[in-house]
Amino acid sequence: MCTANAIRSPFLEHLLRARLSGTGLTPPVIESAGSAARPGRPAEPRIVEIARAYGLDLDGHRTRRLDEHVLASSAPVLCAAAIHRRAVLDMRPDLLDATFTVREFSRLLSEQVDPVGERGDWGALARAAARHRSSPRRGARGDDDLVDPIAQPAEVWAEFERHAVEAVDRIVHHAVRLLGPNGSASRIDQPPRTRREWRAARALLDSPQTERERPPFSGGACAFGEDVARPKVPPRR
What we know:
By secondary structure, the protein is mainly alpha-helical. The protein contains seven helices and four strands; from the N terminus they run H-H-E-H-E-H-H-H-H-E-E.
């Protein structure tokens, strides 16, 4: 969740869904909203372009305002900043132990050592994170916020992008560790992690390779680090 549901929260929504898709975990229902959103508007063009660099399609996104329906799920409520966490708790005080900023959630999960539940028990994951808060009512620290890049220079957008991707990747890593079978998920093709990986993946997929040379591709996720069998070239005589 963010303010306008036009930059931060739609990017987080789509990135988290994509990252979870190859883990073997049962994902929660992932939705996004804004505390002051004007419903029905598209995402900001700049975040659409950034998302595309990660293989994400935000063209069809339309903004929505935070309401009771969004908060009806048992999944953790992840916010861009502490101000959005307060907006959630003003509406639903009972969600105190289930509402975090996305960076706060990633940080708190890193402090949990033992597995916390079955693969689909995201409520247990939220409760585990809440136990590591020094003061639940105080909530997130200032450095747990994701900066709002709207009308900001390029370096602020880069900071937002870096922190958002880092937080999502850490959440997925710790979710697999804490909810996955035996603390780990099966090795499944993963979406590209960075812009560089996405460009490399597209270059591989678009190059004139034989089927034997082409790396596995399934559901928009690209495999990396796999040994690909290549045809033997006979030596020159």
